[in-house]
# Entry
Amino acid sequence: MFKPHISIRRLNVFYRERHVLKDINVDIPEKRITAIIGPSGCGKTTLLKSLNRLTDLVDGVKVSGDVLVDGLNVFDNGADVTDIRKKMGLIAQMPNPLPMSIYDNIAYGPRIHGVKDGKKLDQVVEHCLQAASLWNEVKERLKDPASKLSVGQQQRLCLARALAVQPECLLCDEPTSALDPISAQYIEMQLLTLKKDYTIVFVTHVLRQARRLADYVIFLYLGELIEHGPAETVFTQPSNPRTRAYIEGVFG
Amino acid sequence: MNKRKLEEAFFKALMLLSTSIVVASLLAVFAVVILKGAPALSLSMLTQTPKGGYYLGKEGGILNAIIGSLYLAIGATALAFLLSLPIALYLNEYAGKSRFASFTRLSLDVLWGIPSIVYGAFAFIIMLYVGARASLLWGIITVTLFVFPIMTRAIDEVMKMSPFKLREASYALGSTRLETALKVMTRQTLPGMLTAILLAFGRGIGDAASVLLTAGYTDSVPRSLFDPVATLPLAVFFQLGTPIPEVQQRAYASGVVLLVLVLLLSIASRLSTRRFMKYVVK
# Structure
Protein backbone atom coordinates (compact mmCIF):
# COMPACT_ATOMS: atom_id res chain seq x y z
CA MET A 1 0.00 0.00 0.00
CA PHE A 2 0.93 3.65 -0.30
CA LYS A 3 2.55 5.59 2.50
CA PRO A 4 0.75 8.93 2.98
CA HIS A 5 2.77 12.15 2.74
CA ILE A 6 0.07 14.81 2.77
CA SER A 7 -3.12 14.27 4.75
CA ILE A 8 -6.10 16.47 4.02
CA ARG A 9 -8.76 16.53 6.75
CA ARG A 10 -12.18 18.20 6.63
CA LEU A 11 -10.90 20.84 4.23
CA ASN A 12 -13.44 23.51 3.29
CA VAL A 13 -12.64 26.52 1.12
CA PHE A 14 -14.90 29.48 0.45
CA TYR A 15 -14.33 32.32 -1.99
CA ARG A 16 -16.56 34.93 -0.37
CA GLU A 17 -19.98 33.19 -0.40
CA ARG A 18 -19.02 30.45 -2.85
CA HIS A 19 -18.28 27.07 -1.28
CA VAL A 20 -15.50 25.79 -3.56
CA LEU A 21 -14.24 22.76 -1.67
CA LYS A 22 -16.62 20.75 0.49
CA ASP A 23 -15.28 18.70 3.34
CA ILE A 24 -12.35 17.04 1.59
CA ASN A 25 -10.68 14.08 3.35
CA VAL A 26 -7.91 12.28 1.52
CA ASP A 27 -4.30 11.12 1.85
CA ILE A 28 -1.74 11.82 -0.85
CA PRO A 29 0.87 9.04 -1.14
CA GLU A 30 4.57 9.72 -0.85
CA LYS A 31 6.81 9.53 -3.94
CA ARG A 32 3.96 8.73 -6.27
CA ILE A 33 2.10 10.73 -8.86
CA THR A 34 -1.38 11.66 -7.70
CA ALA A 35 -3.71 13.02 -10.36
CA ILE A 36 -6.58 15.30 -9.38
CA ILE A 37 -9.19 14.95 -12.11
CA GLY A 38 -12.63 16.37 -12.70
CA PRO A 39 -14.51 18.77 -14.96
CA SER A 40 -13.64 22.49 -15.15
CA GLY A 41 -14.54 24.52 -12.11
CA CYS A 42 -14.75 21.56 -9.75
CA GLY A 43 -12.06 22.90 -7.41
CA LYS A 44 -8.99 21.00 -8.66
CA THR A 45 -6.70 24.04 -8.71
CA THR A 46 -8.05 25.31 -5.39
CA LEU A 47 -7.28 21.95 -3.78
CA LEU A 48 -3.77 22.04 -5.22
CA LYS A 49 -3.16 25.61 -4.06
CA SER A 50 -4.44 24.97 -0.56
CA LEU A 51 -1.55 22.54 -0.13
CA ASN A 52 1.04 25.33 -0.15
CA ARG A 53 -1.35 28.09 0.93
CA LEU A 54 -1.23 30.01 -2.32
CA THR A 55 -4.94 30.41 -1.62
CA ASP A 56 -3.79 33.13 0.83
CA LEU A 57 -3.19 35.42 -2.16
CA VAL A 58 -6.87 35.37 -3.14
CA ASP A 59 -9.03 38.16 -1.73
CA GLY A 60 -11.93 37.04 0.42
CA VAL A 61 -10.83 33.44 0.84
CA LYS A 62 -11.83 31.42 3.92
CA VAL A 63 -10.30 28.06 4.72
CA SER A 64 -11.15 25.60 7.48
CA GLY A 65 -9.77 22.14 8.14
CA ASP A 66 -6.28 20.71 8.18
CA VAL A 67 -3.61 19.92 5.65
CA LEU A 68 -0.89 17.88 7.32
CA VAL A 69 2.51 17.65 5.65
CA ASP A 70 5.00 15.48 7.54
CA GLY A 71 2.55 15.71 10.42
CA LEU A 72 2.62 19.54 10.56
CA ASN A 73 -0.55 21.49 9.84
CA VAL A 74 -0.06 23.91 6.97
CA PHE A 75 -2.95 26.08 8.19
CA ASP A 76 -1.66 26.33 11.76
CA ASN A 77 -1.47 29.93 12.93
CA GLY A 78 2.17 29.53 13.84
CA ALA A 79 3.11 27.78 10.58
CA ASP A 80 5.87 29.47 8.60
CA VAL A 81 4.31 29.93 5.21
CA THR A 82 7.65 30.44 3.42
CA ASP A 83 8.89 27.10 4.78
CA ILE A 84 5.73 25.36 3.64
CA ARG A 85 6.04 26.79 0.15
CA LYS A 86 9.71 25.92 -0.03
CA LYS A 87 8.73 22.29 0.55
CA MET A 88 6.23 22.37 -2.31
CA GLY A 89 7.40 23.36 -5.75
CA LEU A 90 4.67 24.72 -8.01
CA ILE A 91 4.45 24.29 -11.76
CA ALA A 92 1.71 26.58 -12.99
CA GLN A 93 -0.59 26.17 -15.94
CA MET A 94 1.08 28.95 -17.91
CA PRO A 95 4.87 29.11 -17.63
CA ASN A 96 5.70 32.03 -15.35
CA PRO A 97 9.38 32.95 -15.65
CA LEU A 98 10.55 35.77 -13.40
CA PRO A 99 11.69 39.03 -15.01
CA MET A 100 15.38 38.12 -14.99
CA SER A 101 17.94 35.97 -16.79
CA ILE A 102 17.72 32.19 -17.18
CA TYR A 103 20.45 31.79 -14.57
CA ASP A 104 18.83 34.17 -12.08
CA ASN A 105 15.47 32.44 -12.45
CA ILE A 106 16.97 29.22 -11.10
CA ALA A 107 19.23 30.97 -8.58
CA TYR A 108 16.40 33.13 -7.20
CA GLY A 109 15.02 30.42 -4.89
CA PRO A 110 18.34 29.23 -3.43
CA ARG A 111 19.44 32.87 -2.99
CA ILE A 112 16.41 33.90 -0.95
CA HIS A 113 16.88 30.78 1.16
CA GLY A 114 20.41 31.80 1.97
CA VAL A 115 22.79 30.29 -0.61
CA LYS A 116 25.34 33.02 -1.36
CA ASP A 117 28.35 31.12 -2.66
CA GLY A 118 28.70 31.66 -6.42
CA LYS A 119 30.20 28.22 -7.13
CA LYS A 120 27.45 26.49 -5.21
CA LEU A 121 24.82 28.47 -7.15
CA ASP A 122 26.49 27.55 -10.45
CA GLN A 123 26.25 23.89 -9.45
CA VAL A 124 22.61 24.16 -8.43
CA VAL A 125 21.71 25.92 -11.67
CA GLU A 126 23.46 23.35 -13.84
CA HIS A 127 22.09 20.41 -11.89
CA CYS A 128 18.50 21.65 -11.94
CA LEU A 129 18.58 22.59 -15.61
CA GLN A 130 19.90 19.12 -16.35
CA ALA A 131 17.19 17.51 -14.26
CA ALA A 132 14.65 19.42 -16.35
CA SER A 133 16.59 18.43 -19.53
CA LEU A 134 17.03 22.07 -20.51
CA TRP A 135 20.77 22.44 -19.83
CA ASN A 136 21.99 21.58 -23.33
CA GLU A 137 19.66 24.09 -24.93
CA VAL A 138 20.56 27.04 -22.69
CA LYS A 139 24.08 26.46 -21.33
CA GLU A 140 25.53 28.94 -23.86
CA ARG A 141 23.08 31.71 -22.99
CA LEU A 142 22.41 31.62 -19.27
CA LYS A 143 22.46 35.43 -19.13
CA ASP A 144 19.66 35.80 -21.68
CA PRO A 145 16.22 36.88 -20.46
CA ALA A 146 14.08 33.88 -19.53
CA SER A 147 11.14 35.39 -21.41
CA LYS A 148 13.03 34.88 -24.70
CA LEU A 149 12.74 31.09 -24.39
CA SER A 150 9.96 29.20 -26.17
CA VAL A 151 6.89 28.37 -24.08
CA GLY A 152 7.94 24.72 -23.81
CA GLN A 153 11.43 25.71 -22.67
CA GLN A 154 9.95 28.19 -20.20
CA GLN A 155 7.89 25.43 -18.60
CA ARG A 156 10.98 23.25 -18.20
CA LEU A 157 12.73 26.30 -16.74
CA CYS A 158 9.91 26.60 -14.21
CA LEU A 159 10.35 22.92 -13.36
CA ALA A 160 14.09 23.48 -12.87
CA ARG A 161 13.38 26.55 -10.75
CA ALA A 162 11.01 24.57 -8.55
CA LEU A 163 13.62 21.85 -8.07
CA ALA A 164 16.27 24.40 -7.08
CA VAL A 165 14.79 24.99 -3.61
CA GLN A 166 14.91 21.24 -2.89
CA PRO A 167 11.21 20.68 -2.33
CA GLU A 168 9.62 17.47 -1.12
CA CYS A 169 6.56 17.75 -3.32
CA LEU A 170 5.83 19.09 -6.76
CA LEU A 171 2.41 20.64 -7.31
CA CYS A 172 1.57 20.72 -11.01
CA ASP A 173 -1.44 22.67 -12.23
CA GLU A 174 -2.18 21.36 -15.73
CA PRO A 175 1.49 21.95 -16.57
CA THR A 176 1.23 20.77 -20.15
CA SER A 177 -2.02 22.38 -21.22
CA ALA A 178 -0.29 25.41 -22.80
CA LEU A 179 2.45 23.38 -24.48
CA ASP A 180 2.95 21.76 -27.86
CA PRO A 181 2.82 17.93 -27.87
CA ILE A 182 6.61 17.45 -27.90
CA SER A 183 7.20 19.80 -24.95
CA ALA A 184 4.28 18.21 -23.13
CA GLN A 185 5.83 14.79 -23.61
CA TYR A 186 9.14 16.13 -22.25
CA ILE A 187 7.44 17.34 -19.08
CA GLU A 188 5.57 14.05 -18.64
CA MET A 189 8.80 12.12 -18.97
CA GLN A 190 10.47 14.38 -16.40
CA LEU A 191 7.66 13.84 -13.94
CA LEU A 192 7.86 10.06 -14.31
CA THR A 193 11.60 10.22 -13.57
CA LEU A 194 11.16 12.66 -10.68
CA LYS A 195 8.56 10.62 -8.82
CA LYS A 196 11.21 8.41 -7.27
CA ASP A 197 12.38 11.44 -5.26
CA TYR A 198 9.31 13.65 -5.03
CA THR A 199 5.66 13.42 -4.12
CA ILE A 200 3.91 14.75 -7.19
CA VAL A 201 0.37 16.13 -7.25
CA PHE A 202 -0.91 16.71 -10.71
CA VAL A 203 -4.07 18.52 -11.81
CA THR A 204 -5.38 17.61 -15.23
CA HIS A 205 -8.59 17.48 -17.16
CA VAL A 206 -7.05 15.23 -19.80
CA LEU A 207 -8.02 11.72 -18.76
CA ARG A 208 -5.53 10.03 -21.06
CA GLN A 209 -2.76 11.99 -19.39
CA ALA A 210 -3.97 10.92 -15.95
CA ARG A 211 -3.98 7.29 -17.14
CA ARG A 212 -0.42 7.62 -18.47
CA LEU A 213 1.04 9.19 -15.34
CA ALA A 214 -1.02 8.60 -12.24
CA ASP A 215 -0.45 6.05 -9.50
CA TYR A 216 -3.28 7.46 -7.44
CA VAL A 217 -6.37 9.34 -8.54
CA ILE A 218 -8.63 11.88 -6.83
CA PHE A 219 -11.90 12.66 -8.59
CA LEU A 220 -13.58 15.95 -7.71
CA TYR A 221 -16.99 17.05 -8.86
CA LEU A 222 -18.53 20.43 -7.98
CA GLY A 223 -16.24 20.83 -4.99
CA GLU A 224 -16.90 17.40 -3.56
CA LEU A 225 -14.52 14.50 -3.36
CA ILE A 226 -16.40 11.76 -5.20
CA GLU A 227 -13.83 9.02 -5.31
CA HIS A 228 -10.15 8.38 -4.68
CA GLY A 229 -7.93 5.36 -4.89
CA PRO A 230 -5.13 3.66 -6.80
CA ALA A 231 -5.23 4.54 -10.50
CA GLU A 232 -6.02 1.01 -11.76
CA THR A 233 -9.00 0.73 -9.45
CA VAL A 234 -10.45 4.14 -10.22
CA PHE A 235 -9.98 3.79 -13.97
CA THR A 236 -11.12 0.18 -14.35
CA GLN A 237 -13.62 -0.38 -11.53
CA PRO A 238 -14.86 2.98 -10.32
CA SER A 239 -17.26 2.48 -7.43
CA ASN A 240 -19.26 5.67 -7.90
CA PRO A 241 -21.59 6.02 -10.89
CA ARG A 242 -20.50 9.65 -11.41
CA THR A 243 -16.85 8.64 -11.61
CA ARG A 244 -17.79 5.95 -14.12
CA ALA A 245 -19.77 8.44 -16.19
CA TYR A 246 -16.88 10.93 -16.18
CA ILE A 247 -14.31 8.33 -17.12
CA GLU A 248 -16.50 6.98 -19.90
CA GLY A 249 -16.84 10.52 -21.22
CA VAL A 250 -20.57 10.93 -20.58
CA PHE A 251 -19.78 14.43 -19.28
CA GLY A 252 -16.52 16.39 -19.11
CA MET B 1 -19.22 54.13 -51.21
CA ASN B 2 -21.48 52.57 -48.65
CA LYS B 3 -22.31 54.02 -45.24
CA ARG B 4 -19.86 51.94 -43.22
CA LYS B 5 -16.90 52.87 -45.39
CA LEU B 6 -17.90 56.52 -45.18
CA GLU B 7 -18.07 56.25 -41.40
CA GLU B 8 -14.65 54.68 -41.31
CA ALA B 9 -13.13 57.42 -43.45
CA PHE B 10 -14.85 60.21 -41.53
CA PHE B 11 -13.74 59.09 -38.08
CA LYS B 12 -10.25 58.27 -39.24
CA ALA B 13 -9.99 61.82 -40.58
CA LEU B 14 -11.21 63.21 -37.23
CA MET B 15 -8.57 61.21 -35.33
CA LEU B 16 -5.86 62.34 -37.71
CA LEU B 17 -6.98 65.93 -37.21
CA SER B 18 -6.69 65.71 -33.41
CA THR B 19 -3.31 64.04 -33.69
CA SER B 20 -2.01 66.67 -36.05
CA ILE B 21 -3.18 69.44 -33.68
CA VAL B 22 -1.00 67.94 -30.95
CA VAL B 23 2.06 67.64 -33.17
CA ALA B 24 1.49 71.06 -34.71
CA SER B 25 1.19 72.81 -31.35
CA LEU B 26 4.45 71.24 -30.17
CA LEU B 27 6.17 72.44 -33.33
CA ALA B 28 4.55 75.87 -33.02
CA VAL B 29 5.79 76.32 -29.45
CA PHE B 30 9.26 75.29 -30.53
CA ALA B 31 9.20 77.60 -33.54
CA VAL B 32 8.03 80.66 -31.61
CA VAL B 33 10.48 80.19 -28.76
CA ILE B 34 13.40 79.54 -31.08
CA LEU B 35 12.58 82.40 -33.45
CA LYS B 36 12.13 84.89 -30.61
CA GLY B 37 15.10 83.67 -28.63
CA ALA B 38 17.56 83.11 -31.47
CA PRO B 39 19.16 86.57 -31.33
CA ALA B 40 20.05 86.08 -27.66
CA LEU B 41 21.23 82.47 -27.99
CA SER B 42 24.97 82.20 -27.67
CA LEU B 43 27.54 80.09 -25.95
CA SER B 44 27.94 82.68 -23.20
CA MET B 45 24.23 82.22 -22.40
CA LEU B 46 25.07 78.69 -21.32
CA THR B 47 28.44 79.21 -19.69
CA GLN B 48 28.18 82.51 -17.78
CA THR B 49 26.17 83.83 -14.90
CA PRO B 50 24.19 87.06 -15.45
CA LYS B 51 25.97 90.39 -15.44
CA GLY B 52 24.09 93.50 -14.38
CA GLY B 53 21.29 91.74 -12.54
CA TYR B 54 18.83 89.11 -13.74
CA TYR B 55 16.02 91.59 -14.11
CA LEU B 56 17.58 94.22 -16.31
CA GLY B 57 20.96 92.80 -17.31
CA LYS B 58 21.62 92.22 -20.98
CA GLU B 59 25.02 90.63 -20.54
CA GLY B 60 26.24 87.31 -19.30
CA GLY B 61 24.25 84.05 -19.33
CA ILE B 62 21.81 81.93 -17.39
CA LEU B 63 24.24 79.35 -16.03
CA ASN B 64 22.89 80.11 -12.55
CA ALA B 65 19.38 79.08 -13.63
CA ILE B 66 20.52 76.03 -15.62
CA ILE B 67 22.56 74.63 -12.74
CA GLY B 68 19.92 75.72 -10.22
CA SER B 69 17.09 74.01 -12.10
CA LEU B 70 19.11 70.81 -12.48
CA TYR B 71 20.03 70.75 -8.77
CA LEU B 72 16.47 71.41 -7.81
CA ALA B 73 14.81 68.94 -10.18
CA ILE B 74 17.35 66.16 -9.55
CA GLY B 75 17.13 66.66 -5.79
CA ALA B 76 13.35 66.73 -5.77
CA THR B 77 13.02 63.74 -8.13
CA ALA B 78 15.40 61.67 -6.01
CA LEU B 79 13.63 62.60 -2.80
CA ALA B 80 10.21 61.97 -4.35
CA PHE B 81 11.38 58.54 -5.54
CA LEU B 82 12.43 57.65 -2.00
CA LEU B 83 8.86 58.40 -0.92
CA SER B 84 7.08 56.96 -3.95
CA LEU B 85 8.68 53.53 -4.21
CA PRO B 86 7.80 52.43 -0.66
CA ILE B 87 4.24 53.73 -1.05
CA ALA B 88 3.73 51.96 -4.37
CA LEU B 89 5.25 48.72 -3.07
CA TYR B 90 3.14 48.91 0.06
CA LEU B 91 -0.06 49.52 -1.88
CA ASN B 92 0.59 46.61 -4.23
CA GLU B 93 2.29 43.98 -2.11
CA TYR B 94 0.90 44.56 1.36
CA ALA B 95 -2.32 46.55 1.35
CA GLY B 96 -4.19 44.43 -1.20
CA LYS B 97 -7.67 45.72 -1.94
CA SER B 98 -8.16 47.19 1.53
CA ARG B 99 -10.06 50.40 2.21
CA PHE B 100 -6.85 51.96 3.41
CA ALA B 101 -5.28 51.32 0.01
CA SER B 102 -8.12 52.89 -1.92
CA PHE B 103 -8.18 55.84 0.47
CA THR B 104 -4.44 56.33 -0.06
CA ARG B 105 -4.90 56.23 -3.83
CA LEU B 106 -7.72 58.76 -3.58
CA SER B 107 -5.54 61.05 -1.44
CA LEU B 108 -2.72 60.84 -3.95
CA ASP B 109 -5.10 61.71 -6.78
CA VAL B 110 -6.34 64.74 -4.84
CA LEU B 111 -2.78 65.84 -4.05
CA TRP B 112 -1.91 65.46 -7.69
CA GLY B 113 -4.68 67.86 -8.63
CA ILE B 114 -3.60 70.66 -6.28
CA PRO B 115 -2.02 73.55 -8.21
CA SER B 116 1.70 74.05 -7.64
CA ILE B 117 1.24 77.61 -6.35
CA VAL B 118 -0.71 76.15 -3.41
CA TYR B 119 2.23 73.91 -2.56
CA GLY B 120 4.46 76.98 -2.82
CA ALA B 121 2.22 78.96 -0.46
CA PHE B 122 1.95 76.02 1.93
CA ALA B 123 5.71 75.58 2.12
CA PHE B 124 6.13 79.32 2.46
CA ILE B 125 3.89 79.38 5.54
CA ILE B 126 5.94 76.60 7.12
CA MET B 127 9.13 78.49 6.24
CA LEU B 128 7.78 81.60 7.97
CA TYR B 129 6.83 79.49 10.95
CA VAL B 130 10.28 77.92 11.35
CA GLY B 131 12.04 81.10 10.30
CA ALA B 132 13.72 79.66 7.19
CA ARG B 133 14.86 81.70 4.20
CA ALA B 134 14.22 80.82 0.57
CA SER B 135 16.84 78.27 -0.41
CA LEU B 136 17.67 75.28 -2.58
CA LEU B 137 16.62 73.00 0.28
CA TRP B 138 13.14 74.50 0.59
CA GLY B 139 12.78 74.55 -3.17
CA ILE B 140 13.58 70.84 -3.24
CA ILE B 141 11.12 70.11 -0.43
CA THR B 142 8.32 72.02 -2.15
CA VAL B 143 8.91 70.46 -5.56
CA THR B 144 9.12 67.02 -3.92
CA LEU B 145 5.71 67.53 -2.32
CA PHE B 146 4.35 68.63 -5.64
CA VAL B 147 5.75 65.80 -7.81
CA PHE B 148 5.61 62.74 -5.56
CA PRO B 149 1.85 62.10 -5.91
CA ILE B 150 2.09 61.82 -9.68
CA MET B 151 5.23 59.69 -9.42
CA THR B 152 3.64 57.37 -6.87
CA ARG B 153 0.47 56.88 -8.88
CA ALA B 154 2.46 56.27 -12.07
CA ILE B 155 4.56 53.57 -10.35
CA ASP B 156 1.44 52.20 -8.66
CA GLU B 157 -0.31 51.83 -12.02
CA VAL B 158 2.55 49.88 -13.63
CA MET B 159 2.73 47.63 -10.57
CA LYS B 160 -1.01 47.01 -10.70
CA MET B 161 -0.64 46.05 -14.35
CA SER B 162 2.11 43.51 -13.78
CA PRO B 163 0.88 39.94 -14.12
CA PHE B 164 -0.37 38.10 -11.04
CA LYS B 165 1.47 34.96 -12.13
CA LEU B 166 4.80 36.66 -11.31
CA ARG B 167 3.80 37.15 -7.69
CA GLU B 168 2.50 33.62 -7.56
CA ALA B 169 5.79 32.28 -8.97
CA SER B 170 7.78 34.20 -6.39
CA TYR B 171 5.59 33.24 -3.43
CA ALA B 172 5.50 29.60 -4.52
CA LEU B 173 9.29 29.52 -4.12
CA GLY B 174 8.92 30.59 -0.51
CA SER B 175 9.61 34.34 -0.89
CA THR B 176 8.45 36.79 1.69
CA ARG B 177 6.44 39.81 0.59
CA LEU B 178 9.50 42.01 0.87
CA GLU B 179 11.58 39.74 -1.35
CA THR B 180 8.78 39.60 -3.89
CA ALA B 181 8.47 43.39 -3.80
CA LEU B 182 12.16 44.21 -4.02
CA LYS B 183 13.50 41.42 -6.21
CA VAL B 184 10.64 40.68 -8.57
CA MET B 185 8.26 43.63 -8.75
CA THR B 186 10.93 46.32 -9.05
CA ARG B 187 12.60 44.44 -11.89
CA GLN B 188 9.38 43.87 -13.74
CA THR B 189 8.37 47.52 -13.42
CA LEU B 190 11.76 49.14 -14.00
CA PRO B 191 10.84 50.69 -17.38
CA GLY B 192 7.57 52.00 -15.92
CA MET B 193 9.42 53.46 -12.95
CA LEU B 194 11.79 55.26 -15.31
CA THR B 195 8.81 56.78 -17.09
CA ALA B 196 7.35 57.86 -13.75
CA ILE B 197 10.66 59.44 -12.75
CA LEU B 198 10.86 61.29 -16.04
CA LEU B 199 7.30 62.52 -15.67
CA ALA B 200 8.09 63.87 -12.22
CA PHE B 201 11.36 65.39 -13.36
CA GLY B 202 9.64 67.13 -16.27
CA ARG B 203 6.99 68.60 -14.00
CA GLY B 204 9.57 69.59 -11.40
CA ILE B 205 11.99 71.33 -13.73
CA GLY B 206 9.25 73.17 -15.58
CA ASP B 207 7.30 74.57 -12.69
CA ALA B 208 7.61 78.23 -11.74
CA ALA B 209 4.89 78.73 -9.15
CA SER B 210 6.12 76.27 -6.53
CA VAL B 211 9.63 77.74 -6.43
CA LEU B 212 8.62 81.41 -6.67
CA LEU B 213 8.18 81.75 -2.91
CA THR B 214 10.43 78.97 -1.68
CA ALA B 215 13.65 78.81 -3.71
CA GLY B 216 14.27 82.52 -4.16
CA TYR B 217 16.36 83.76 -7.04
CA THR B 218 20.00 84.71 -7.39
CA ASP B 219 22.63 85.62 -9.93
CA SER B 220 25.12 83.09 -8.66
CA VAL B 221 25.30 79.33 -8.66
CA PRO B 222 24.30 78.00 -5.22
CA ARG B 223 27.16 76.61 -3.11
CA SER B 224 25.08 74.93 -0.45
CA LEU B 225 21.56 73.68 0.19
CA PHE B 226 20.89 76.81 2.19
CA ASP B 227 21.67 79.29 -0.60
CA PRO B 228 18.86 80.71 -2.67
CA VAL B 229 18.73 79.24 -6.14
CA ALA B 230 17.77 80.47 -9.60
CA THR B 231 15.57 78.32 -11.85
CA LEU B 232 14.88 78.37 -15.57
CA PRO B 233 11.11 78.90 -15.37
CA LEU B 234 11.67 81.92 -13.13
CA ALA B 235 14.43 83.13 -15.44
CA VAL B 236 11.84 83.13 -18.21
CA PHE B 237 9.28 84.79 -15.97
CA PHE B 238 11.51 87.61 -14.70
CA GLN B 239 13.18 88.39 -18.01
CA LEU B 240 9.88 88.38 -19.84
CA GLY B 241 8.55 90.92 -17.35
CA THR B 242 11.05 93.62 -18.26
CA PRO B 243 10.28 96.35 -20.75
CA ILE B 244 13.64 95.89 -22.49
CA PRO B 245 13.37 93.92 -25.77
CA GLU B 246 16.92 92.45 -25.48
CA VAL B 247 16.13 91.02 -22.06
CA GLN B 248 12.84 89.63 -23.37
CA GLN B 249 14.79 87.83 -26.07
CA ARG B 250 16.89 86.32 -23.32
CA ALA B 251 13.68 85.00 -21.74
CA TYR B 252 12.88 83.09 -24.93
CA ALA B 253 16.45 81.86 -25.13
CA SER B 254 16.07 80.53 -21.57
CA GLY B 255 12.88 78.81 -22.72
CA VAL B 256 14.81 77.13 -25.52
CA VAL B 257 17.35 75.85 -23.00
CA LEU B 258 14.57 74.44 -20.81
CA LEU B 259 12.85 72.78 -23.78
CA VAL B 260 16.09 71.23 -25.00
CA LEU B 261 16.89 69.90 -21.53
CA VAL B 262 13.52 68.18 -21.25
CA LEU B 263 13.76 66.89 -24.81
CA LEU B 264 17.23 65.42 -24.29
CA LEU B 265 16.06 63.75 -21.13
CA SER B 266 13.04 62.24 -22.87
CA ILE B 267 15.19 60.85 -25.66
CA ALA B 268 17.74 59.46 -23.22
CA SER B 269 15.03 57.78 -21.17
CA ARG B 270 13.42 56.29 -24.29
CA LEU B 271 16.75 54.77 -25.24
CA SER B 272 17.48 53.47 -21.76
CA THR B 273 13.96 52.10 -21.31
CA ARG B 274 14.54 49.84 -24.28
CA ARG B 275 17.57 48.44 -22.49
CA PHE B 276 15.67 47.87 -19.27
CA MET B 277 12.77 46.23 -21.12
CA LYS B 278 15.03 43.27 -21.82
CA TYR B 279 14.04 41.15 -18.83
CA VAL B 280 10.44 42.27 -18.48
CA VAL B 281 7.89 39.46 -18.72
CA LYS B 282 4.86 40.24 -20.87
